[in-house]
Amino acid sequence: MTYSNEVMDHFMNPRNVGEIEDASGVGTVGNAKCGDIMKVYLKIEDGVVKDAKFKTFGCGAAIATSSMATELVKEKTIQDALSITNKTVMEALHGLPAVKVHCSCLAEEALHAALWDYAQKNDIVIEGLNPPKEDVHDDDHDLYESHVK
User: Fold this and answer.
1) CA–CA separation, 22 vs 20, rounded Å?
2) pLDDT value for 148
3) At the top level of CATH, which class does the domain 5-148 belong to?
4) Cut 0.85: pTM above it
5) What is the percent of the chain with per-residue pLDDT over 90, rounded to a whole number?
6) Any catalytic annotation for residue 59?
7) Bridge pairing between strands 48-57 and 37-45
8) Domain extents for the chain?
9) Residue 103 is a catalytic residue
10) In 34-149, alpha helices (H)
């Protein structure tokens, strides 16, 4: 299994590790199959993500995708933050091995879960935002959709 230089850099030198005490939104997601757990903290002011931090228990790819996702979301509007997908994270990292794609899905879902928490705390609706998943897999989108309906 080969990792890009970007993945290795974000694993060896992760950005934004930690927590935000007065976070506007906090999202925690996990993957029962691999045991990875991601927690993302967002500080949102005037509709813009001013800060993002994470705590991840997982493999190197999980740490790298958490690091990259928090970098990508900073200074984005809520709607732009919502548009950050697992594909966005993987492209920014110059790819992931197929068996590690679920890590980028976790990063996307953790960001979205933190946005969901923010929306709930502020009694607002963020257009296009779905409730967070309890367990994230890269191959269960159809199962998830049928469960939510």
Assistant:
1) 6
2) 27
3) alpha beta
4) yes
5) 82
6) no
7) antiparallel
8) 5-148
9) yes
10) 60-73, 78-82, 86-92, 101-122, 141-148
